[in-house]
Structure formats: C-alpha cells, structure tokens
Design brief:
single chain; alpha+beta; two-stranded antiparallel sheet; cell membrane; LPS_length_determ_N; GNVR; Bact_polysacc_biosynth/exp
C-alpha cells in the first residue's frame, strides 16, 4: 500500500527541524560570502567595438547583398581575432608573460544583433590591463586584416576606456549569497525530510495503528513525577521492647 503524507505532516516536519534548516542556510550564506569577498579574485571587463564594411569606390552605394556579405564575414573575423596571428603581436606589443592561450581565454568576441558591429570584450584582474588588451587587439586586427585577407574594411567605432572608479564584473557577492541561501534552504529541507524518514520510532497512536494495521483500544497517558501523590501507609508491629510504627 502506498504511503501518503499530508500537508500537516509536512508542516510538522519542517517545524520540528526548523533550527537545522536555519543553521544550514546561514552557514551556506556565510561560506559563499567569505569565498566571494576573500578567496575569489575580482575580474574587470573592458570592451571595444569595430565596424566591418565592404570596401567601395567613392560614390558607390552599398547593396543588400554587400551587407549580407559583410555579416557573413564577421564569423570569419571572430575566429581571426582570437587566433595566434593576432594575439602573438598583441603579446609582443604589451610585453605580456602569459601564453597566447591564456590571452585567448580572456577575450570574448561577438556581433550585436547580427549587425556589422563586432565587440571585443576582455576580462582581467587588472582593469588597466583589460583596457590595454582590448584596444591593442582591435588595433592589431585592423592593421593586419589588410595583409591577411587583402581587404581594408575594418574601422574602430569605440575604444575601451579606463574609468576613475572601475567596478569588477565578477564575483558578485550578493548574487552568490542569494544562490547559497536558496541552495542552503533546499539542502536543509531535504535533510529534514531524510532524518524524518530514517526515524522509525512510533510517537502517536495514528502511527501505531497505521504501522500494525490494528485499531488502538486505549492509551496510557504519561504521568509526571510532580503530579504523583505518594500516600504513606503506617504499620504497627509488636516486639519485645514494645510497639514500633513502620511507614511504607
């Protein structure tokens, strides 16, 4: 026979293990906060935009086919931007000690809404270095694409700039602690029901009747020692010296 659980039993279980759920949730939030503020390295982001155009002679207008060709070229340019052909000169110009692969992992390239605008985003623990890498990648790409593909159709729309008070994009302590709170609550509730499931002791008449499958005819209430009134009985017995009273 399938066992069912009522809303009242769920509420009783949560109420019974409420302290455990709170402790786990608070611990999860505290751990997430400590890791976010003291262990994770803050990362800063810089971004630059470039525009991809088809080279045309003066006075010649762009057609719809030209625009479609430019958009298709963007996928090729995205690969070229993060290739060693571009990143090696960037590494040399900035005199970076990190590898080309490490630089590639810092860069994210994409187009905005399938337009001819390509953005280059760079993340680094140093905000000034993030700006330098983003601008250098855009400059080197604009310069070398002429030799690589024999085209001159790239212009820089906006260069990355270092703000007076840069703020990190990661980690986000508030978001991390909010996620930790949700996870902690879920873990606490799950552990509460697990402990309740593993507890096989019978505590109520309903549990006894449900487990044994027989009706309960009567119960004996627990008696507190404070409510028990002890009556003393006095017995009298005779001995050689006289009568002696005994209390029991």
């Amino acid at each position: 026979m399938e066992e069912t659980i009522s809303l009242r039993e769920i509420f009783d279980t949560l109420k019974k293990r409420l302290s455990l759920i709170i402790i786990i949730s608070v611990a999860a939030v505290a751990i997430a906060g400590l890791i976010s503020y003291y262990l994770l390295t803050p990362m800063y982001q810089a971004s630059t935009q470039i525009l991809v155009n088809q080279s045309k002679e003066e006075g010649q207008a762009l057609t719809q086919g030209d625009l479609r060709t430019n958009i298709e070229l963007i996928n090729t340019y995205n690969v070229i931007i993060t290739s060693p052909r571009i990143l090696e000169p960037v590494k040399e110009e900035l005199q970076l000690t990190r590898s080309v692969g490490a630089i590639r992992n810092q860069i994210r390239v994409g187009s905005q809404n399938n337009s001819q605008v390509v953005y280059i985003q760079v993340e680094d623990s140093d905000p000034a270095m993030a700006v330098q890498i983003a601008n250098t990648v855009a400059t080197v790409f604009q310069r070398d694409i002429v030799e690589i593909m024999n085209v001159d159709n790239v212009s820089i729309l906006s260069a990355a700039e270092l703000s007076d008070n840069p703020s990190p994009v990661s980690p986000n302590p508030t978001l991390n602690m909010a996620i930790a709170l949700v996870v902690g609550l879920m873990a606490g509730v799950g552990l509460a029901f697990l402990l309740e499931f593993l507890d096989r002791t019978l505590k109520t008449e309903e549990q006894l009747e449900k487990t044994l499958g027989i009706p309960v005819l009567g119960t004996i209430s627990s008696i507190s020692d404070k409510n028990v009134e002890v009556k003393k009985l006095t017995f009298t017995r005779r001995n050689r010296t006289g009568r002696e009273n005994i209390e029991a």
